[in-house]
Amino acid sequence: MTTQDEAPPQAQADEHAGLWLTSGELNSWLSVVRLMTRLPWAIDTQLQRDADLSMVEYMAMAMLSEAPEWTLRMSALAENTSTSLSRLSHMVKRLEGRGYVRRAADPADGRFTNAILMPAGMAKLESAAPAHVAYVRHLVVDNLSGERLRRLGQDAERILQRIDSPAR
Fold first, then answer.
1. What is the C-alpha separation between 115 and 61, in angstroms, rounded?
2. Least confident among 1-5, 29-33, 51-55, 146-150
3. What is the C-alpha separation between 11 and 28, in angstroms, rounded?
4. How far apart are CA 59 and CA 3, in angstroms?
């Protein structure tokens, strides 16, 4: 017999069941964790080896290459690369030193700084892209059917929306 303050063991187990992942959920979660850790490392390693660029440097330059006049505000670039403004500033300074990017005051609002892709940066990006895209294809795109890749993208967006929602 149990006291009021002491629930039977099965009731305690049922009460805490939602706190733990099932075996299947845990296996899936651990696969996602390994993917989140190893995929960026693998891509960064390929880019460092083949292009002497980090993954974040490549991403920033690629985003600038898609922007009008190859220009984005530093704050927007930081957000788009999931990088702090401080870290982005250090990275852009390194890219400036290599002649790939320059910074300038935003002519529309001098309180902001723009990052601008330079022709040498575009040339570097264009030379790095074929090997990078081939590696991304090898690791991810060609490893999934079109439907599975589409669903993976949708699932990633759902998770990102949850991360980015104000009600964390």
1. 9
2. 1-5
3. 27
4. 61
